[in-house]
Amino acid sequence: MSSFLLLITVILATTFSVVTSCSASDRSALLAFKSALSEPYLGVFNTWSGDNCCLNWYGVSCDVSTARVTDINLRGESEDPIFEKAGRTGYMTGKISPEICKLDRLTNLVVADWKAISGEVPACITSLSSLRILDLIGNKISGKIPAHIGNLQRLTVLNLADNEITGEIPESIVNLASLKHLDLSNNRLTGAIPADFGKLGMLSRALLNRNQLSGSIPASIGNIYRLADLDLSANQLTGSIPVQLGKMPVLSTLNLDSNSLSGQINPNLLSNPGMGILNLSRNGFEGSIPDVFGPKTYFMALDLSYNNLKGRIPGSLSSAKYIGHLDLSHNHLCGSIPLGSPFDHLEAASFSYNDCLCGNPLKTC
Ligand SMILES: *[C@@H]1O[C@H](CO)[C@@H](O)[C@H](O)[C@H]1NC(C)=O
């Protein structure tokens, strides 16, 4: 009985005690993280001293009940007064210490836009099972994406854009069951997009543009029900656009420009009323532009320039509700430009460098 009471006392004591200081191991992990970096202009790390890393350490947050570190949020571009005071944006050199992997309750790791942090993404980061946001955009991080990145089952945001990351997109990435935003743009990734990329069922934005990705666009992408924004532009992708991409319910921005894609333009891509921005410029698309536009067509931008498109501009395009920006230049189109309100505001540049187009805004037929 007395041991039972003792147990109760211990449980109550642990439940209600106010943890006042951060865990010693979290504190030493943070100090190791700090010492591998150098930030000469703003002094973001000046507050990182003293025992309690949960109290007023710039960019650090803890869980109040456990006093374990949950967030590191260091952005080199922000509204914070320290930037105003210094009159400049952030700049940091050094690297991300693997010691960070000892912060095993970390949910958000944002070390973004510091321009010069180099080194690799520590492979051990894949052991941080609580991690929800990993945002290292805008640095000089090199090396590969950790092979076991797919272990991060809670990850919702993976942003490694604007770095110098090489190698292939790891196969395991398709196991990120919670991933909503993937941004790997402007790196040096090579190889193919994993064939089962479509397993990423929660994804709403996938930005893989400005890399050196090759191979074809996986048809499985068409299975990502929530995908609204897909940018694969400025890579070395080949093959045709999978028909599945024209049938996606919420896809509204599709940028495939500056690749080596070929084949005909799938009619569904143009007739899908949700599609607002479609850029297929600078590829090898051929055949004619499908005549499938209608009163529900609403394009902020439709760019089909620099392809091998032939035939006439479809008459149905003049029945579109709105076309903000249209570029059909640098193809082999011929015939008269349709009349109608979507065309009223367009300039000659939208139609230039074709074989034999005529009519307003070009010369009369
Ligand atoms: C489409 O992509 C091309 C080539 O990458 C680019 O120059 C153009 O500005 C883009 N069009 C629109 C409307 O953004």
Account of the protein in words:
- With 365 residues, this protein is α/β, with parallel strands linked by helices.
- Helices cover 12% and strands 21% of the residues.
- The protein has helices at residues 2-16, 24-35, 81-86, 267-271, 341-344, and strands spanning 37-38, 60-62, 69-75, 93-94, 108-112, 133-135, 157-159, 181-183, 205-207, 214-215, 229-231, 236-237, 253-255, 262-264, 277-279, 284-288, 298-303, 308-311, 322-327, 332-336, 356-358.
- The longest helix is centred in the first third of the chain and has 15 residues, at 2-16.
- The structure holds 2-acetamido-2-deoxy-beta-D-glucopyranose (NAG).
- 2-acetamido-2-deoxy-beta-D-glucopyranose binds next to strand 17.
Stretches with pLDDT under 50, minimum 5 residues:
4-17
What is the approximate shape? elongated
- Percent of residues in helices: 10-25%
Radius of gyration: 26 Å
Major β-sheet strand ordering: 2-3-5-6-7-8-9-11-13-15-17-19
Report, as a whole number of angstroms, the end-to-end distance: 102 Å
Strand content: 15-25%
Quantity of strands, as a count: 21
List the secondary-structure elements in sequence, H or E. Answer: HHEEEHEEEEEEEEEEEHEEEEEEHE
Which ligands does the model contain, each kind named once? Answer: 2-acetamido-2-deoxy-beta-D-glucopyranose
